Batch of 3 targets.
Target 1
Amino acid sequence: MYRLRQISIKTANLNPSCSALLKRAAATGPNSSSKHADGSSFVIQAVGEKDMVGPPDKVSNIRPIRFHIPANESPVEKEYRLTRQEVLQWNQDFWSNHNTKFLKERNEFIENEQRKKCNNDPLSADEMSVFYKQFLDNNWQVHVKYNAEWYKKNIGLMLQSFKILVLKSFGRLNRSS
């Protein structure tokens, strides 16, 4: 079962337009939720015509995004939005796995070093630097592959975005009704 994080905002000190917007958002109910790695979840409410950004995931540190879907979204815009969602999910998965591996290996390193020293004193920065260098050296190829793939995906997104811009500029974007 998921724990739901709830945020309550006092509207008394807000200007009237912000207060009205928050009340309208609360009245519409949640339309998107996301699960954190720790099992808790949060709800993002779509308000207006903008993408909504949630709090960072506790493991990956990636902020989830609820993409706005316009009523008359064209097939090209839909493809772009779906690609953005796929890239965001790919990024989320990579950093969740990477950071989980990092934390596990760091904890194992700390336990082994404390066992060698026969005490539970925290390790110094110099002692921890051995682990950090070793982890970076061992995962260098993973980071190179990630960066290459990240660049490819971002260039693909920029090309899709440019295509939409050009189609809009010439009035050739076919909107669905």
Note: The CA atoms of residues 44 and 173 lie 29 Å apart.
Target 2
Amino acid sequence: MSRYYKSGTYRQLWTLSGNQCAYHYGKDNCRHALIDENGAFNGEIAHIVGESDNGPRAEKSWSDDMRNAPSNLMIMCGYHHSMIDKRQNWSTYTVQRLRDMKRQHEEKYRNGISQLWETMERQARMPIDVTAQFIGEQAPNIARLVQILELPEDDAVEKEYNEQYMLAVNKLQEVLSKIPLRVRSTLAIILKYGTGDPIEISWHELTAHTVNYDDSNVRDIQEDVRVLNKNGIATGPYENIDDVLMISLREPRVFISDTAVRWDDYPGELGYSKNRDEEVVAGYGFWRGLKEIVDGDDELLREMIHGADFTALSGSGGE
């Protein structure tokens, strides 16, 4: 049966799902990811008061709007959605038990998931003349990044690549420091919740991790992605969007002489720069390396992306 939900319902439910099935009963807590590491969508919207008059937990006095309101819905994996709706389980999974299940699950994420976005949005609403406070700082070196990505450090043939890689990272920091704060907030969300190498995220998941549920917020995100596209930081659709479409972070563009690097060692977009004596290759693994450095630390993520401060990329390289 096709189901239609009001605008914002999906985003509200996904924001509070924590990307985990809501099922728990006694000591049985489902840890099933709703969107797995490959971006596969495994979640289903489950009704507390039944969807139909003849279904589980039916309330004939309820209207369709009441049944399909976010307060009557939660997201589960397919297995547990089927379990709670089986006729033999109706006496176990009552309306009150499922309401308690939803409340306890969403309380874990109601504050935590939205904290990063709320902090950044609050800063992004500041008058434009204070943007200079967020211009950040370039990294004096990228030794920590080199160590994580295992880029060559000593081979003379590869030396130019590392030198130009650092210049490319500094150029990216300069670009980041000039784009609006709200756009940086969206970039941080992509980096925090995106997966893979290069880092990518679906529109479905990106909008799920924002705290506003109205259509104007989606338009803001579309504009942010457009700005990231324009500045060469991301690639992906920002018009006529669909939940399954993906947004990818682009690696920094490294300009080098055509004899400096063995290209099969550095997969990426290879082409010529405006100077015909140079070629350009995507800077291998930058966003993955930055994500590893952040390692789930929201404060460091705010510092590096919203604050455009790349000093955490530096270090001795031998630690």
Note: Residues 113-313 form one domain.
Target 3
Amino acid sequence: GEDPPQKLDRKVEEMNEREKGSSGRSAGEHQHLLDRREMLKKAGVLGPAVLGLGAAAVPMIIPSSVLGKDAAVAPSNTVTLGVIGSGGKARGGMQNFKGVPGVKILAVADPIAQNREAGRALAGIGEDSAYIDFRQLVDRDDIDAVLVGTPDHWHVLASLAVVRSGKDVYCEKPLSNTVAEGRALADAVKRYGAVFQHGTQLKSLDGTRRACELVRNGYIGELEQITIGSPPGHATGLHGEQPVPDWLDYDLWLGPAPMKPYTPSRITALPGWYFISDYSKAGWIAGYAVHDVDIAQWGMGAEYTGPVEVEGTGVFPAEGLFDTVLQYELEFKYANGVKLVLTDTSKNRHGVKFEGTEGWVFTRGGIEVSDPALLQVELGPNDTHLYRSLN
């Protein structure tokens, strides 16, 4: 049978009739894009958060010429965007994009009419550019990049469709529901020469970056353990089946997920699909703790590797619509000997605590330290200076 990446590729093949077996960019265009990107990287215009898959932050914006659209560049060098999934989280991203000069949102897509209309109004576009089916948005040739703000179970498939069309992606967290799906997307981004950024924006905060720089440069001694407290999951009762409302394309909303009876809480974000394993396999660990684990791995320099061993326990709802973990305690072991303990906030304070042989640093956007002198440290030229996101 097919392995998960093959199944994922096949699903997108079936969805995307425009798939041509190529990246959508000619070899010359592809090389031109890479040359320009490398040039800008050396010039300091592009940081690793935009060029790599371990990205951070509210999206960095670059001219559409850099995205390989030279023939279609307007005199103003406007970057044109589409939005797939225009719910509350995505609209927050849209608002951030609108604050950056030279950015224009041309289209939105969402199977929920209220989200679609709210996104359309925020973007200031006509009804003919607000789609139910995101594939119509992907088919447009006048869009440079796409914000993917769907529920988790659509992240990979929507991003794959966008990348294969020759566009670039800013995708909300988590990247995927499984390692295999995430690997398939990462491989596709590399294969098609796309720019991809992942929405783990807490790394854009100065306190987060500062804490991680102190750890990575040995200012708390040798790192021994990282302790994380993140919010617990949610439980709910049984929810009876209801008729599918006419403002919802329920089949499209479900997409690759199993067909289940409609109930309003199934399509609501909080509390809703975040805590249903059909849509978010790890529940609130993927929905929230992903930020904290991301920071922990950034601080120890393991953002491109990850743990070598993971074990843990959890408490799950006995019944009800929500079926993902409520309370949890996990232990990650890394090749460098560091132990990471991740629990819900009933056991540890919300945030990330790095413990070394000579002190500790705690961060949750801000920074706390074991010794006030750590706050006065100025990094030297030979220290590791982590990427600073300016927008």
Note: DSSP finds twelve helices and 13 strands in the chain.
